[in-house]
Amino acid sequence: DVKVTQSSRYLVKRTGEKVFLECVQDMDHENMFWYRQDPGLGLRLIYFSYDVKMKEKGDIPEGYSVSREKKERFSLILESASTNQTSMYLCASSPGTVRYNEKLFFGSGTQLSVL
Amino acid sequence: AQSVTQLGSHVSVSEGALVLLRCNYSSSVPPYLFWYVQYPNQGLQLLLKYTTGATLVKGINGFEAEFKKSETSFHLTKPSAHMSDAAEYFCAVSDQAGTALIFGKGTTLSVSS
């Protein structure tokens, strides 16, 4: 089975801190994604990457950056955390494009609280 | 632009009753459509997907969905609800490039005995 592992289940940070959320997948997938999930808003795409060192902005990239130095690892960075970034963050991966019948595999999520 | 609208943020049914979760989409290209389920404290799992071909799609756990182009809909149904079906359900459409998924806001399904 494909495994997408997010390093922390719960994280508490202070306003202004630099925050790193880590995600690792073990199936050599090309694509990796970061979504945030908020009650009543569903999942919103922050960034995705279709190859090492490649990245594309999603719908809500402001206040975030990403890093993909190795194929299996995709990091989400909050340069200066703010309270409105308190959310559940979900990482996902897929072996190819969605149009080619591939599905996304999701991690269990990181609940980030910014105080 | 691609988008999905899920009608009803919360649906309640009795055990054994029909489950109907509604999803309408907007897409500038032929859509690829998905339903995902999220059980409490778990990640999202794929229930079913429509890409091309048969418009009635069967998924896991007895769920199915029908793609209706004329109605731009992809509603999820299950003939008989089970307590274990209580979860949050998300409808999604592929983006124009076919790389990422655009999700709806979700529908929470409650099942009472």
Tell me what the structure shows.
Chain A is mainly beta and 115 residues long. Helix content of chain A is 0%, strand content 56%. Chain A has strands at residues 4-6, 10-13, 19-25, 31-38, 42-51, 54-57, 64-70, 73-78, 87-94, 105-106, 110-114. In chain A, the strands form two sheets. In chain A, strands 2, 4, 5, 6, 9, 10 and 11 form a seven-stranded mixed sheet that branches. Chain A has a four-stranded antiparallel sheet with strand order 1-3-8-7, with no helix packed on it. Chain B is mainly beta and 113 residues long. Helices cover 0% and strands 55% of the residues of chain B. Chain B has strands at residues 3-7, 10-14, 19-26, 33-38, 44-50, 56-58, 64-68, 73-78, 87-94, 101-103, 107-112. In chain B, the strands form two sheets. In chain B, strands 2, 4, 5, 9, 10 and 11 form a six-stranded mixed sheet that branches. A five-stranded antiparallel sheet of chain B has the order 1-3-8-7-6, with no helix packed on it. The mean pLDDT of chain B is 93. The A-B interface holds A 4, 31, 33, 35, 40-45, 48, 50, 56, 58-59, 90, 92, 97-101, 103-104, 106-109 and B 6, 9, 32, 34, 41-46, 49, 51, 90, 94-95, 97-106.
